[in-house]
Amino acid sequence: MTATAGQGLVVTRPGFFTLLQDAGRRGVMHLGLAAGGAMDRHAWAWANRLLGNAYDSAALEITFGNVEFTSELDTQIAVTGADAACTVNGEPRPLWSTLRLRAGDRVALGVPKSGIRSYIAVLGGFQVSRGLGGSCASFIREGMGSLNGDGCKLAQGDHLPCLSGLAPVANRKVPEGWRPDYKTPLSLPVILGAQVERFSAATLETFFQRPYTLSPQFDRMGARLKGPALAVTDNTLISEGTSLGAIQVPSDGQPIVLLHDRQTIGGYPKLGAVTPRGLDALAQRPPGTEVRFSPVALHQAQREEHEFLSFFNA
Fold this sequence. Notes:
Layout: E1 2-13, E2 17-21, H1 41-50, E3 59-63, E4 67-71, E5 75-83, E6 86-88, E7 91-93, E8 98-101, E9 106-109, E10 114-122, E11 159-164, E12 186-192, H2 201-209, E13 212-218, E14 222-226, E15 240-241, E16 246-248, E17 256-258, E18 265-266, E19 270-274, H3 276-282, E20 290-295, H4 298-311
Parallel strand pairs: 12-20
Antiparallel strand pairs: 1-4, 1-11, 2-3, 3-10, 4-9, 5-8, 5-10, 6-7, 6-9, 12-19, 13-14, 13-20, 14-17, 15-18, 16-17, 16-19
């Protein structure tokens, strides 16, 4: 099996925002870098699992669809995530299943009807150089990862190297029960944090009983919410490290959920953190979505994360 310059997928329509993502970087926060990686790990991990790829294999994260690729080799792909029409040479193909491609085939994804992020994995994973932290995850702000190590989103004409000569895997599809419905009401589980004492019982009741709305200020760094303002006893802290999913409450009282490309330190009080599985669901909701929160015990969140990583052989 080989990966050569002439064997891969060619981007013929890059869409609005298409990135190469893997499981993200590890051990880099002391350098001021967030881990990055796929926003919806559930959909990303399933795309790789369908093809028998290693958990950390690089795949494409496509925001708002409208992309097209041409294959230069016989291979297989899997498309998961947002409910976007998928076609091969104009013929409809199912999502959340393996798809066979021949050299010259054109793969297209339309604009999603629900969900906002699609994932495309290829047999053997995209063969892209890995840099700091052993990752090729695209990090635009820091100019790291991606196809050429500059963090950029994909552009028309980009060539994505693939392995050729691999034995195909059997046709597979994800069971219906494992395919999320991105139109269902969104309730995010929250682990209360060490600074919860800065929020009164009345404030916590407001947070967990009242709905919030996902604002247009929603990107890979964070999700700003609109709703009842949360009062804080003292809304400034000495800057400290931030965690994935942390719910930061600035001076205006409007919570912000910190995401994969977040800043690594912050000085606002943090009420708690959305669990990793909750972040998967959040990553698929567009601005304007109503969001509610529910408290969850730390041991329950840890058990769910352990089950997820074990299932995907992480």
